[in-house]
Recover the amino acids of this structure.
């Protein structure tokens, strides 16, 4: 009885949490005419308040099609987002995974692990100006590298993966060493397969982070042709809301898909840094 | 053995070099630069710090950022703990938790139109308020803009924090509760005397993590309000960006050092919490 009563406020709360996402999704399937009609007060030429219907009155794919087929700018920026995200993920796989293994199992000084923890917790406000100085002296400002390279050398994946790798039992490694396996073989044939759940968790968190970057491209990329989607979308106004919602949905879809498929791995990644 | 010694370092070296180039060396450079003049580079002692600390915009931004944290963190912690406790008790708690966690995966830029629509003076939120009989609020133009920050921060971070609390709640063994029940403790008492003490260390690290995460709220602020938002929404990151545009590098260097000091203190506190958790 008590439990059923609890369901009500909790369910209502969950619906409120989903509301902004619902608006974003339904907006992409509404016709521009309907949006203009509903949003007249917000656009500044109408009395009263804006309206929104739970489902579009006349659902249409027109805005989505228009964005996909008819706006080269969208494609450039979508592609920039993809390049940045792929670059960061591949780079992290190449340098962060071995580093985490080294820190977790190869008896490197513990102080180094602390260094990564501190760097992980520094907000962008602290790192922004130092990164700017390096990128400037390397001549990388205004190239996609300016966003990719600092992302690759983020301390976050190293710190998280170190915690995942530390859970692999020492006995397995000792047995492999007795059988004459070298350190690289152990890394390739034991660490990578056994650490796969951890790699997945960290990969998802890194993807979400890279796909969502705003401050970094804003500071380091002045050339509009290099902007990722996250800088393009805020420029769309409610006047051409149809296109804005459609472009936003196309940015949202990869993130939602990933969330739907890998929620458990994501939660593990969240719990890990503070966990025992 | 010596050879293996070399090999272990090879695992770490590429990453360590990158960290050195992109973080450690330039941070040292900024630390030194904070004591120099931007033009000419002559040594000026603490003059840059004095300029920054007496700067009106810096004071406003630091005050707003601090106030935002003081309001948001307690709110976030209490709300998410309540949710975590509730979700444990209802059927379908997992689905509800997914709904709360989903905003974390949503790129801030893809819901910016929805936020603009909700918080516009003639927007949807005021529509709801009017339906409830309350008057409309000018969300973006008055001090109410502070609450736009609070709401979007809570929306984004609530699920994340619920997951952390749920994990912390899971570490208390159910047999303790059963024993308490046998002894006649009601659910409030077992919460107060069993759950709360067990959550203390986790609460501490969750609080510091949330605090460090709260710097990211600039994204939402910038997305809904642009470079020059209503005064109450003006945060440290806005100030950085404006100084950046005006090439005030000595001010940025000094402000970076100041912010670093604050953050390093927070991190030291977090470390103490984690060490305690590992022992306990």
């Amino acid at each position: 009885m008590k439990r059923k009563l609890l369901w009500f406020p909790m369910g209502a709360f969950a619906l409120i949490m989903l509301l902004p996402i619902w608006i974003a999704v339904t907006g992409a399937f509404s016709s521009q005419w309907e949006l203009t009609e509903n949003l007249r007060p917000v656009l500044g030429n109408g009395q009263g308040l804006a309206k929104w219907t739970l489902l579009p009155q006349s659902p249409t794919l027109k805005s989505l099609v228009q964005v996909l087929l008819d706006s080269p700018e969208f494609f450039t920026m979508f592609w920039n987002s993809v390049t940045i995200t792929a670059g960061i993920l591949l780079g992290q796989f190449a340098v962060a995974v071995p580093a985490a293994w080294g820190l977790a199992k190869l008896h490197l000084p513990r102080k180094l692990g602390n260094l990564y923890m501190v760097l992980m917790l520094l907000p962008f406000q602290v790192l922004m100006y130092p990164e700017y100085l390096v990128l400037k002296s390397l001549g990388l400002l205004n190239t996609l590298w300016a966003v990719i390279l600092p992302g690759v050398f983020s301390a976050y994946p190293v710190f998280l993966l170190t915690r995942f790798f530390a859970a692999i039992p020492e006995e397995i490694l000792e047995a492999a060493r007795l059988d004459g396996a070298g350190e690289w073989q152990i890394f390739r044939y034991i660490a990578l397969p056994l650490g796969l759940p951890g790699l997945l968790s960290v990969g998802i968190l890194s993807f979400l982070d890279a796909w969502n970057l705003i401050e970094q491209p804003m500071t380091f990329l002045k050339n509009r042709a290099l902007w990722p989607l996250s800088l393009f979308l805020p420029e769309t106004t409610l006047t051409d809301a149809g296109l804005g919602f459609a472009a936003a949905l196309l940015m949202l879809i990869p993130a939602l898909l990933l969330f739907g498929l890998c929620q458990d791995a994501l939660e593990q990644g969240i719990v890990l840094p503070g966990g025992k | 053995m010596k050879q293996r010694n070399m090999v272990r370092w090879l695992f770490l070296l590429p990453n360590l070099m990158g960290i050195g180039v992109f973080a450690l060396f330039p941070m040292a450079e900024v630390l030194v630069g904070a004591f120099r003049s931007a033009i000419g580079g002559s040594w000026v002692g603490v003059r840059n710090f004095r300029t920054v600390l007496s700067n009106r915009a810096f004071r406003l931004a630091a005050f707003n950022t601090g106030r935002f944290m003081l309001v948001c963190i307690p709110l976030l912690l209490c709300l998410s703990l309540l949710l975590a406790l509730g979700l444990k008790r209802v059927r379908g708690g997992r689905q509800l938790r997914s709904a709360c966690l989903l905003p974390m995966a949503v790129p801030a830029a893809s819901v910016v139109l929805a936020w603009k629509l909700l918080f516009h003076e003639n927007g949807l939120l005021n529509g709801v308020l009017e339906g409830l009989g309350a008057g409309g609020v000018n969300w973006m133009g008055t001090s109410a803009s502070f609450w736009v920050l609070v709401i979007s921060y809570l929306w984004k971070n609530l699920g994340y924090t619920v997951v952390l609390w749920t994990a912390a709640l899971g570490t208390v063994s159910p047999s303790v509760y059963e024993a308490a029940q046998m002894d006649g403790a009601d659910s409030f008492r077992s919460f107060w005397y069993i759950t709360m003490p067990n959550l203390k260390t986790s609460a501490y690290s969750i609080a510091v993590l949330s605090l460090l995460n709260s710097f990211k709220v600039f994204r939402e602020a910038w997305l809904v309000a642009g470079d020059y938002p209503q005064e109450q929404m003006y945060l440290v990151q806005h100030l950085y960006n404006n100084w950046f545009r005006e090439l005030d590098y000595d001010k940025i260097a000094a402000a970076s050092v100041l912010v670093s000091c604050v953050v390093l203190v927070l991190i030291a506190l977090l470390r103490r919490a984690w060490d305690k958790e590992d022992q306990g």
User: Anything to note?
Assistant: Chain A has 14 helices and no strands. Chain A has a mean pLDDT of 89. The CA atoms of residues 204 and 258 of chain A lie 7 Å apart.
